[in-house]
Amino acid sequence: MAQGVLEVDRISKRYGEVVALDGMTFDVRAGELFGFVGSNGAGKTTAMRIALGVLAADAGEVRWNGAPITFETRRRIGYMPEERGLYPKMKVLDQLVYLAELHGLSTDAAHRSAETWIARLGLRERRGDEVQTLSLGNQQRVQLAAALVHEPDVLVLDEPFSGLDPVAVDVMSAVLREKAASGVPVVFSSHQLDLVERLCDRVGIVRSGTLVACGSVDELRAGGESKLVVDAPLAPPGWADDLPGVRSAHTSSGRTVLAVAPDVDDQAVLRAALGTGPVHEFSRQRPSLTELFRSVVTEESAA
Length: 303
Prior knowledge:
Helix content: 25-40%
Number of strands: 14
Strand content: 25-35%
Largest sheet: 6 strands, mixed
Order of helices and strands: EEEHEEHEHHHEHEHEEHEEEHEH
Structural class: alpha/beta
Number of helices: 10
Shape: elongated
């Protein structure tokens, strides 16, 4: 498989009366880190399993470079499930070699690749240990090595940062950036939204089996509710309540945080603040990915 685009096109999946996916559509481009976020049960894992052919969709299609995914192309996908997908009594090196051979590597190439990823992920001292004797964090490193050992053309990772300490998070992040930089499309789900915000080129927010927002973090933040922070120590209570575009205001010790519409005239707000006396701070704050996510969850709960 050459470098290309992974497309998930209008896939749907039901389990009886439960709608797991409802016409979900997104793509992951060559060299892109795509973050997939949503509440538990939103449909992220189901979408990933359908992309891999582990589950069959009721409708829709998954394509690689414009063609439907086949058995041969699936062999070139690196998958890391959220649940441990390893043989617990098998030694680390033996397991990675075996998995690489399953994906078509020769025995020699499988050994070379396994040793490379064992070293890269800090597992050299554990290479002869059974997986079941490893800490959860080291099992997670082996799981990532298993997804990488056959040098895949696409990476699909379900909660890859779960259970990792900060050092391991840094190692994992560096590996994902490295693979994306080489042209590999990388999609991963995570509840650690600070990592998603820091790492990803684009983010998709999933709610009830549907992608409700998709774009770069900057694009998503620009479309969310922003805030103006105004430090006007002499401003009376309610000084900004009637200003156009101001939705709410909270003032404490002369510092006012205004929730504002995207098209608010911030210069008009500044003039109003200056009309009350000196202004020591005036800045705009865009919502973080975490705030955007909470907003989506709130909408879902209120629906």
